[in-house]
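From the pipeline queue, job 12 of 40. The input is one protein chain; the requested action is below.

Action: predict structure.
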Amino acid sequence: MAGRLEGKVALVTGAASGIGEGTVKRFAEEGASIVVADLQEEAGSKVAASLGNTARFVTCDVTKEADVQAAVDHAVDAFGKLDIMVNNAGIVGAVGPIAETSSESWERTVAVLLDGVFYGMKHAARVMKPNKSGSILSIASTAGVQGGLGPHCYTACKHAVSGLTKSVGSELARDGIRVNAVAPGNTVTAMVNAVISGDPNDSATAEKQVSSMAPLGIAGAPSDIANALLYLASDEARYVTGHTLVVDSGQTAFTMTPTEFHFQSADVLREAGKRGL
């Protein structure tokens, strides 16, 4: 089926790489006009250019409300409306034992993983409510479904994303706006590559380890998450709101002990494997 998002306008944060990049490409294939929002200007501009004249790039730091507001306004100015908001930008963030986690690294992680989602929901709702329609999507995580699958702050924020999805979904339902989330399992992206091998470009090692942990024996790819987001963004999901869709090869559904990621120090892991605040 083609054209599932024909005539719709989508904004995706963190869209220059990984799940975000996979999502904007999938949405464009289905007919959506796209705003690619990211801090990575060169990479984001290339992604937007690859999608043709129905895509725009905008620099966006999701920890800054003004940036998120401007990205939403850019979508409306460029394409006349906003139908789909995808709050995807993320980092691994603060890692290490709880007794050694600094408040600075904790706050930086919350700023990206939770504040950024709040700003995205807030400003998407602002422009969607007058039209009485829209789909707001956020990236949660299996770490937001079960404990022990991610670092402490990441886990706390992803639980919060699922909770916020339910709460905001309840408010906006009468406005015709659906609010949902996708909780990916281990997905081979630069961020996961860096966690597993220390090299954001080492997809082979990541794919091997992720496959070994997955009940289905295959590694998750950005396209798997993009397809889930596509369903929730489309009119096919018109009866779905307040839901977190888990896409994880059954990892959280079955009684299994996942292989643990071992972090060497308390630090902040950022986009594309970078470290520090």
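Job complete. The domain at 9-186+220-273 is CATH 3.40.50.720 (Rossmann fold).
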